[in-house]
Fold each of these.
Amino acid sequence: MTAVPTPSRTYDLSFARWVRENVEGGDKLNMCMQCGMCSGSCPNGQEMDNGPRKLFMMVRAGLKDEVLSSSTLWECTSCYRCYVRCPRGIPVTTIVQHLAALAAKEGYAPKNKVENYFFSKAFWWSAESFGKTDERLVTMKYFFSFGFGEGIRKALDNLKIALGMIKAGRMHIGLPHTIKNKSQLKAMIAKAKELEQKG
Ligand code: SF4
Ligand code: SF4
């Protein structure tokens, strides 16, 4: 993936091109006819500063900072109403959610939203790697997502709780539990990703 460009002027298409090439579903954005069905159908639209229709126009206009800091990215609940209603078959939810992930990576997300992003990444990593969520590894991965020093600090802050859980038999020590046939799980996830890409 190339770095996110910084458009030099309004209507600089470099950001739109970048979105098309790097955001899931972004290649379909140029089919948006600005009908507003997505924003009009959104049950959480009143909490968003822009809504998906306007957000997509802002992508076209090269408004990178405004797009990546838009509350639309964080208020989307992934209900998929916009996705199923878009007359052009644009995967609105996928685009909004992937833009949110990129915004978090680029440091645009509000702090509490980054926490959600880091936690969901850690959770998914464990589920995909072991077929189960190992609370110890999920927690450690989440803590160290904030950087090494912050990871140590968070781990020490929670050490007493962890030791208490081990003592009470609520947290096992040793290798993580895994499912029996991880290759089947990996094949299912790969297929799901393939289907999602096709939209
Ligand atoms: S419903 Fe589809 S075509 Fe209409 S504004 Fe939204 S994304 Fe664009
Ligand atoms: S998926 Fe997100 S943007 Fe689309 S209608 Fe639902 S909340 Fe609104």
Note: DSSP finds twelve helices and no strands in the chain.
Amino acid sequence: MHIKSLLLIGIILAAFTVTNAVAVDGGNAGKGKHLLKRSCAGCHKRGGEAEVIKAEEKTMRQWDRFFRKAKRKHPGNTFKEISKRDKKDINQYLFDNAVDAPSEETCG
Ligand code: HEC
């Protein structure tokens, strides 16, 4: 009995930690992957004006910080012109595949 309740507490704590780690709330990573190609890869490509974007180049936290400040690192209005919704999805995709993200990709 005692062990069971400890286990339950453990599960609740683990669930909380997982939810807590997802700082980008409700973005659609699947869509984000495509949007990244559409909205970002025009410049971020081999031989383009900026480096190819790799999700694993940053940590989850760094990606979230990047999306808060990205406007300033980008020429003119390029970043502002991408809709908030799209950026959230792209942010989610990069976050989910960040260097320190728990990898699900390898399972599927
Ligand atoms: C109009 C061209 C253009 C578009 C569109 C664009 N970028 Fe950039 N981006 C740049 C340039 C130029 C830089 C600065 C040079 C560099 O770091 O390669 C840059 C820099 C960056 C950096 C490096 C900055 C850092 O501190 O790590 C990241 C990451 C990035 N962009 C992500 C994105 C994402 C994500 C999108 C799409 C939502 C995007 N960019 C769309 C041109 C663009």
Note: The CA atoms of residues 75 and 99 lie 26 Å apart.
Amino acid sequence: MESRTARRLRQLLLWGAGACLLVLFLPATVAVFVDARGHPYLTDRDRVPVEGAARLTPAELRRRWSGDLLGPPLDLPPDPGGEEGRYRRNLDAARDDLARGDVRHALESLRRLGQDRPGRPEALFLIAKVELERGHYAPAREAIEEILGTASPVADGWREAAAALADEIAAERALSESRPGARSPVRTRSSAHFRVTYDHRFARNDFGAAVLELLERVRSESLDRFGRRLRDPLAVKLYSRAHYLDRYGHRFGFATVGFYDGAIHVVSARHPRLELEALLVHEYLHALFHDALGSHRPFFLNEGIAESEEERVRGRSALSRRDWRELLEALRADGWIPLASLVRGFGGLEGGRSAAAYLESRAAVQLIENRFPGAVARWLERCAEGAHWEAAMEAETGWNLEQLERALSADVESRFVPDPLAAAGAQLSGAK
Ligand SMILES: [Zn+2]
């Protein structure tokens, strides 16, 4: 039910790296270069495509193109080694911590990096983004001021990005300081299917209409995909980040940006955009689920369906190679969370554990849908007609919960079959 801030961070952080995966799977002769003006070149050999272009490693690509959180690309030569290399490896490690949801550890290392290299903007910029995301405006502002106030030269792109972020922090902070007495009046917009309320001080007049339009699109797509709609109009409450944190920041054991409790509650920026649509899809699917089953349980299927649809809207219909790798590591290192323990809820899971629970849930739903196309819609229908969820799943897939779990772990393992040529080679050399 909860969309996690850590998960959002991961989404923001990681994959400018469709490009990164591409490089990993391309034949060894393919290389990516970038020239002095930042233009990329994909070549089928090692030769430098234009004068002054530098070859990028996959990690370098990720660093340059993960956009939103990192601001403009770094103007750095690849693989510098020494002090500089260490700084950048530590930066990457902190980014990986964030991706796993380990915000505390990531912030510790970023603060250390910021102190060790006071003239450098990268760690400070990340700190500011993460703190803003958490609603901690003072430390966010401090980190940004350090970038803007530094005496050493900062690349122009970074200075502009830092100034823009400073504005965003100031706006969010103004909103947070407007509460509780001076809260702006709640505005309402309704359609036949939704009743939208929001209290954004600076929202433009067409904000409510734009959100209703988004919701109608979500509704008709869900109807197409699952054949289901809600019988009654649905209340949708949008909050500025500050108001949301104020009211619901402590409601769950981990950070959230939305939930469904009969009404949809989500954090929204002033201008609706893809991020809001993704959150609305997620929570709308919880509403459809609850309508069909009369319950939030089984949680892992509830979250798995909501996550899959949310990720589809973001343009990521399938799990990434990195997701599968994480699942594989969980299986092999005793980090796997049994599905049976994810039926009643995700409560009590912390940090990376809750990220793992969401990932397993999404993988389970995708396995069902891949093997039995349309099964999720038919399963919802069976449940709506009164079948027990596990009986309905068995009817659609032939799997009870235990069998689903076995099929899922087999599916994960099967994606990492060792290269048969390499295995044959090993056998041959063993036979000599
Ligand atoms: Zn959810």
Note: Confidence is low (pLDDT under 50) at residues 8-28, 66-74, 425-432.
